[in-house]
User: Fold this.
Amino acid sequence: MTMPRLLAPRSAQRVAMTLMWAATAATVGLLLFIIGFVLRRGASTLSWEFLFSSPRHSGALGGILPTVVSTIYVSAAAVLVAAPLGVAAAIYLAEYTKESRLTRVIRSGTDALAGIPSIIFGLFGFAFFVTALGMGWSILSGGLTLGLMILPTVIRTSEEALRAVPRHYRDVAQSLGASKWQSIRSVVLPAAAPGVMTGVVLGIGRAVSETAAVIFTAGVALKMPFSPFDSARTMSVHFYTLTMEGISDDMAYGTASVLVVTILLINIGAYTIMNRLTRKYR
Amino acid sequence: MTDKIQVRGLDLFYGTFQGLKQITVSFPARQITALIGPSGCGKSTLLRCLNRMNDLVAGVKITGTVMLDDADIYAPGTDVESLRRRVGMVFQRPNPFPLSVFDNVAYGPRLHGERNPVTLRAIVNDSLQAVGLLGVEGVGLGQPALSLSGEQQQRLCIARALATAPDVLLMDEPCSALDPIATAGIEALMQTLVARYTIVIVTHNMAQAMRASHRTGFMLLGELVEIGATERIFASASDERTRDYLAGTFG
Assistant:
């Protein structure tokens, strides 16, 4: 007995295609809408002057230069923490362990860490780095906290990238007399580099846009930071403060515009580099 | 005829499964020895014992001795990395690294500390010359290795193995991913290389063993059933199992 058909296969295919196309279009559309919305509200404020001068009257007047610099410092500190730790952990998991109970525990632990709300990281960073270790509200505290927060992302994407490298690369390298570490360093890591980069860039994106975890750890100081121990206000925290304290909506959206464009540029830059890396010999 | 490699009483276990049983065999210097037999008979496993590639497989236990020249390669304290330089390996599928032709061939020498560009250049040229790739149209030194044809890639992989200056070349079904013309090319190359290297080749293809080897060994269920001059094995094998296999009764 055949089931009565609701649609001919051909029509069903057409419907499915349309739905999938619509889903894709909705995603891209939403992205463009959000960017457009932010940029339109921020357009009146944007200028070189806004970008390159210091804020006055709590940010109601003037520019946002210190917050741009702070964002760069805090994110860079986070990447300096997360990239080496994350890549090392990924190499250990992908290359040096057999699949076992222990690796499953480590992996689900990593996933759980990725699922912890950022404000919890903020509170932890405040209690541990700011208070217990006495680092105070500083770029260092913020960077370390963000570094821990993006660590799982870096570990999991790097691990996947390493596992995607064909098994035979390792065999060939070792058959030529490479030690295990030499084969990883000279063949496996370069082949996995684009994937590892993706993880790091996703991490940078999260670090740059994070608010909750930095407001408790890097603080809200509006002056230009000069040392890792200075308190600093990132762009997203600045936006949050300007809006929540009703200081200036125009300034808030101006800041948001710079933030959105920065994140777009980071992504475009990363994909360009990745394409170069992967195309070179393929 | 001196023996380059002598295997004595070799047993290999994967966990509790015995993959190789009391293998005793010698491989004469500068001869091509072919190992044939049905899938899973242990011929590739035996090949991988000769450069200790089985060490990389978890749960493998090996007993017995494998003498390369006068030293047991399984003796404690053996430098496995330098052993693998002396015993090169070519794999089933052409598998160049996603690097340039030059960087593929220079990989081994660089690994072992060769940094001098002039020396590297000379090694790369010699190795490519040996496999007939030097000066071939479309095979520039800076060319991506993955843009070469299948046969050229396999030749490049042989050159890469030669660049570490081995005495022995292990070939694990090196033509199974190639068409008949490319296969003939690789077989002809083996005939020139054998003047300088001891070659052990595992093959699925009985006709290839007959065409391209001096000696042929037949393996079945982890045992080396018999080994001898290729003409004799194919004309009048002494073991019934070998005769049945060559006649196509099974396998």
Q: What stands out?
A: The mean pLDDT of chain A is 90. The radius of gyration of chain A is 23 Å. Residues 9-42 of chain A form the longest helix (34 residues).
